[in-house]
Design a protein that fits this description.
- There is one protein chain.
- The protein is α+β, with helices and mostly antiparallel strands and 277 residues long.
- It has two domains: 174 residues, Nuclear Transport Factor 2, Chain: A (Roll), CATH 3.10.450.10; 101 residues, Nuclear Transport Factor 2, Chain: A (Roll), CATH 3.10.450.
- A hairpin with a 4-residue loop joins β8 and β9.
- α3 packs across α6.
- The longest helix has 18 residues.
- The structure holds 2-acetamido-2-deoxy-beta-D-glucopyranose (3 copies).
């Protein structure tokens, strides 16, 4: 109980003192923009029952659904952003934690053609005896699954499978919001890799976005998978912390994105101001 009150008050002060909205550069960071616009700077004590869809208590579990969808379906050409929370309902479930029932819409932010409804449940553990974070997608629009990017994925795969020069890129996007067109798919892939981390790190009191791919390095691979090491910077909006993670992933069109290793870094962010205006 004491811990709960403490966390809630940290969340409150984070919102009142910090700027809760990330405004990213329009050219390169449209995905961050999509993710951030829905957030309203109001915080409340954890409520039960029907929640205001625009407030943090409803936005946070909805963000978890976004990350979960990316871990299931994300690729260099397919990335989901939270578009709008339509309805949110919270209740305590003895033995499980706190359950949020959500009606939301998600947008595919790379092709930008599809916005679809999704209904989901998120259960955050509240005690050590509770099972870990659970996300259940109850339904989502067929349109999301119909997005077919196999041609683009195959072309990218073939290009980088010929490993005579392995990819290396930094600061996607840079402090002016810019990145080279050939790096854009690897920024999206970094966002998918980040979703794995953010899904694992999310609690009832957090709201994560990827801020930047600091480094991406392609590693030699002996099998059919492409292998990448990412240094990503994540922005936790409630505390306003920027957190660095190293994530090792593989990707191929048939296998999708798999995480081999994730590691939180002890890293002080000095140059990100311009990206997170
Ligand atoms: C996606 O498009 C490709 C090429 O147009 C086609 O071969 C493939 O069957 C499609 N996949 C799905 C799941 O519709
Ligand atoms: C390229 O890939 C092959 C296997 O696909 C591997 O044996 C070789 O070491 C790689 N070369 C470089 C430079 O990464
Ligand atoms: C990115 O790589 C450089 C080395 O090229 C390193 O100094 C820096 O710490 C890395 N950034 C992060 C966030 O890990």
């Amino acid at each position: 109980m004491i811990l709960w009150v403490l966390l809630a008050s940290v969340a409150l002060s984070g919102v009142t003192t910090g700027s809760p909205t990330v405004t990213a550069h329009p050219d390169a960071a449209s995905e961050n923009r999509v993710q951030a616009t829905a957030v309203v700077a109001v915080e409340e004590v954890m409520e039960t029952g029907e929640l205001n869809p625009n407030h943090y208590p409803a936005q946070r579990p909805a963000k978890v659904v976004q990350h979960y969808l990316n871990t299931l379906h994300g690729s260099p050409y397919k990335l989901f952003g939270l578009h709008k929370v339509k309805r949110a309902y919270a209740e305590d479930v003895p033995g499980s934690g706190r359950k949020y029932q959500l009606e939301l819409s998600v947008q595919e932010v790379v092709q930008k053609q599809t916005t679809a409804s999704c209904s989901a449940e998120v259960i955050f553990p509240r005690e050590a005896t509770h099972p870990p974070l659970q996300v259940n997608i109850l339904s989502y629009g067929d349109d999301l699954l119909k997005i077919n990017v196999s041609v683009q994925e195959e072309a990218l795969y073939q290009q980088y499978k010929k490993n005579h020069s392995l990819l290396f890129a930094q600061n996607l996007p840079d402090s002016y919001g810019h990145m080279e067109p050939e790096h854009v798919p690897f920024w999206h892939l970094g966002a998918v890799a980040s979703s794995f981390v953010m899904l694992g790190e999310s609690t009832e009191y957090t709201l994560y976005n990827m801020a930047q791919v600091a480094n991406v390095t392609q590693l030699p691979s002996d099998d059919d998978l492409l292998k990448f090491e990412y240094d990503v910077l994540l922005h936790e909006m409630v505390s306003q912390d920027i957190i660095a993670w190293k994530v090792l992933i593989t990707w191929s069109p048939p296998e999708g994105v798999k995480v081999l290793k994730m590691e939180k870094r002890d890293y002080t962010v000095t140059n990100l101001k311009t990206t997170l205006l």
